[in-house]
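Dear U.,

Please find below the material for section 3 of the report. The protein was modelled together with adenosine-5'-diphosphate; I have listed the sequence and SMILES used, followed by the predicted complex structure.
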Amino acid sequence: MTFYKLSKKQRLVFKWWAAKSGGKYKSILCDGAIRSGKTICMITSYILWAMTKFSGATFGICGKTVQSVERNIILPLMSIADLRKIYKLQYRRSDHRLTVSAKGRQNYFYLFGGKDESSYMLIQGLTLSGIFFDEVALMPRSFVEQGIGRTLSVPEARYWLNCNPENPSHFIKTEWVDDADGANKKRILHLHFLMEDNPVITKEQIEEAKRQFKGVFYDRYILGLWTKPEGLVYPNFTKKNIVPEFGLRDRSKARFYISCDYGTLNAFSLGLWAIMKLPRGLTAFRVAEYYHSGRATGKLMTDAEYYEQLLKLSSGFSIEGICVDPSAASFITLIRKQGKFKVYSAKNDVINGIRYTSSLISDERLLICENCKEIIREFGLYVWDEKATSDTVKKTDDHTMDDMRYFCETFFKTLTGIGASVADPFEDFVKGGWE
Ligand SMILES: Nc1ncnc2c1ncn2[C@@H]1O[C@H](COP(=O)(O)OP(=O)(O)O)[C@@H](O)[C@H]1O
Ligand SMILES: [Mg+2]
């Protein structure tokens, strides 16, 4: 790619360290909407700054994981013609190191993942002349502090941070955004980005992004606001997401899965899902469900009895996999022992899972058959805990909601190619199953 034009805010990102007033700021923080052009110009400006001010120095580039930095930063960076004209860029995968050189100058940029345990260890021993945090609000505070701590012996070091907004009590908001332009040690230049600050984004792309998010995620990712979640978790679930019983559809064109949220006194919930390829993309249908609340019925059921219900629900369907509440170790073992189903411990990253599920609901790629009464009921009851200081859902009326989220994160995401690692059985399935 090439920067053929820059928006006013992007120009500031390129100028802040070079301007006469450059000494005023120690750090730059760009927050705001997705796809607003934060990452691409920050990383380019970071390289320019490092190459102008240092030689033989070491820098950090941090993201959620090393792989996400490679994909979202290094790959695009290598394709920037404007940079390649002046510098030689070499990325060595074995030690996650980018070397940038020109005219006798050479600097090293190491990649780190805020979520990777090994990165954590590695960063501890280094001295860095600058550190770049992409999507910093997704990293643990200890990692950010550790990274910044690595620069303290280099007086000219600077910090580069960007993120999409999160909960207003997040430390990036309270200690960085709210502290910007203040006389603190971090001396932060804060720039707030909107999609309009990306000069190449089209109206269609903006509309497409707007369609994907509702409620709190819309406020954060589109409007760029640090807002607290309120009210229903899935306000975007409407009649459009409810469809007639699955019975009449062609079963040979679908793949079937089951998701399970486990409870004894609390409710136990099973969802039977079909995934089909429709013109709008892969689409999931909740075909049928089983729901039992020990507390409400006064009857506690054993794992063996639950397993009977699982057999009943799956009867007549060929099930590709079952994902189960990761805390239900005994039930997972029981299913595995029976040897009839492939069982997976479900991915349980609540907020990311909700965000992903929410976008599928908005896209009408998550559909509920009208016979699934329990999940339709819980959609109307599942709410955010407005008293909490971080993003938290109320832990009531959340059982079908959890099994749905497990299904989306563990199976659906993997099949659409967004998921991190593809579990073995699905690889063949993706290759052989669709087209
Ligand atoms: N000035 C620009 N010139 C060319 N492409 C740009 C420019 N600004 C942004 N882009 C492109 O727009 C897309 C979104 O930018 P990105 O920096 O990833 O946004 P954000 O980090 O805010 O989500 C990327 O594909 C990026 O290359
Ligand atoms: Mg970005």
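For the text of the report, you could mention the following: The pocket of adenosine-5'-diphosphate (ligand 1) is lined by residues 1, 3, 5-6, 10, 34-40, 76, 193, 198-200 (CB under 6 Å).

Regards,
Y.
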